[in-house]
């Protein structure tokens, strides 16, 4: 056993020693993603959110549907997701002109630039992949624009359905050409 040396008796101080200021706490981790399924006139959709921002709207079975690991837990009574589902249903019934929700879609800088331009296409109008490429200052990038449009995780809210082929054909919609046609008719860009 190691002998101990007696310590000097402590004397009480008149004032408590101020504690050192605490270091700022590290930023909180990114909120977990969660999702809600909702049935619409166009089929079943999944809406996903991270915090109080929508990170995805996908039609079940569409191209580029995310794996379960990107959807997080199912949250059927989540207030934010329920509000988003209500807005989607109002939009598809024709009683709402746009979805008014904060978004947090993840993508490359190029994808974000394309998605930003998609949000500028007015309801009832369309554009082409080539026109978006020209607006980006990359007139030869129509195929890259098409890939970015196809990867859009916020269908309907970020209106990728308003993008047509150069000859006006309805092409390249992850949710299916008939869904694209239905949305364009609903918005007045196409006749029935």
Could you walk me through the main structural features you see in this protein, from its secondary elements to its overall organization?
By secondary structure, this protein is of the alpha/beta class. The protein contains five helices and six strands. It has helices at 79-93, 109-118, 129-135, 142-150, 177-186; strands at 33-40, 43-50, 53-59, 73-74, 127-128, 163-164. A four-stranded mixed β-sheet has the order 3-2-1-4, covered by helices on one side. Strands 5-6 form a two-stranded parallel sheet. Helix 3 crosses helix 4. The longest helix is centred in the middle third of the chain and has 15 residues, at 79-93. It is globular, with a radius of gyration of 26 Å.
